Amino acid sequence: MTTTEFITYIFLGILQGVTEPIPVSSSGHLVIARELFGIEASGLSFEIFLNTASLIAIIFVYRKDIIDIFMNVMRYIFKGARDDKATTDMRYTILLIIATIPVGVLGLLLKDDIGDHVSVLFVGLMLLLTGVALWIIKNQRGKKRDGQLKLKDAIIVGLAQCIALVPGISRSGATLVGAIGVGLNQKDALRFVFLLYIPVSLGTALISIGDIFSDPNMSTYGLGYLASFIVCIFATYFGVKLLQGIMQSGNLVIFSYYCFALGTFSILYGVFA
């Protein structure tokens, strides 16, 4: 492995990490980066590898929520607890599972086709679509809390996540639009979005573990894979904190502007390059 190749993997890890949690499409950024810089390294298995790194960071950020929910669900199931916290978290977990089902089924059906032969032009169009969706919900301030989520709300957010299987459509963006669209307040919408990411990403990693370790690049570029994995964890943590801060300040529209700018550039590049 050359120094240039090693730096390339570091760059891809940072790019994936920062863009995975924020609503700007990490897969779209990887497509654009490969085209602009002639990056050959990586494939679908590598993207899943980096998604697993992002998963670790997101679990760390929301570790307290995860532990609290898990303990309350265990109390509900095994100890018969029916207090407000146990009941609410049990119901919340069921809704997370329901919201995960659509993308899980569709992902299994389309896993061999997702991401194949995607052009920069196509990614640009999808980024514009993401920007429009974010623009629509930029000023919405829902009042629903976690405990007020309904079955239809979970289904809507789950269907929104399916749209993000298309490269250039941000997963966090699609689910955030769905969650805010059904009336969740921004803080709880963001929490639902990231907790929803965990089962999807974990499931993808588990069913793809064979592809990851049979990747022919693994033996040659193992050091680069490891480096990108590590930096991706830290970059994802930064990305989550960035999104939390921007949403807390009420400036979600920043990502809409960003998608418009990058989408327009990608379209022009796709047409004239």
Automatic annotation (TrEMBL):
One of its GO terms (biological process) is regulation of cell shape. The keyword Membrane applies. It is found in: Cell membrane. GO terms for molecular function: undecaprenyl-diphosphatase activity. Its EC number is 3.6.1.27. One of its GO terms (cellular component) is plasma membrane. It catalyses: di-trans,octa-cis-undecaprenyl diphosphate + H2O = di-trans,octa-cis-undecaprenyl phosphate + phosphate + H(+). InterPro entries: UppP. It is a multi-pass membrane protein. It is an enzyme of class 3 (hydrolase). It comes from the Bacteria. Keywords: Antibiotic resistance, Cell membrane, Cell shape, Cell wall biogenesis/degradation, Hydrolase, Membrane, Peptidoglycan synthesis, Transmembrane, Transmembrane helix. The chain crosses the membrane at residues 44-62, 92-111, 117-137, 189-209, 221-240, 252-272. Pfam families: BacA. Catalyzes the dephosphorylation of undecaprenyl diphosphate (UPP). Confers resistance to bacitracin. Bacitracin is thought to be involved in the inhibition of peptidoglycan synthesis by sequestering undecaprenyl diphosphate, thereby reducing the pool of lipid carrier available. Belongs to the UppP family. This is Undecaprenyl-diphosphatase. The lineage of its organism: Bacteria, Bacillati, Bacillota, Bacilli, Bacillales.
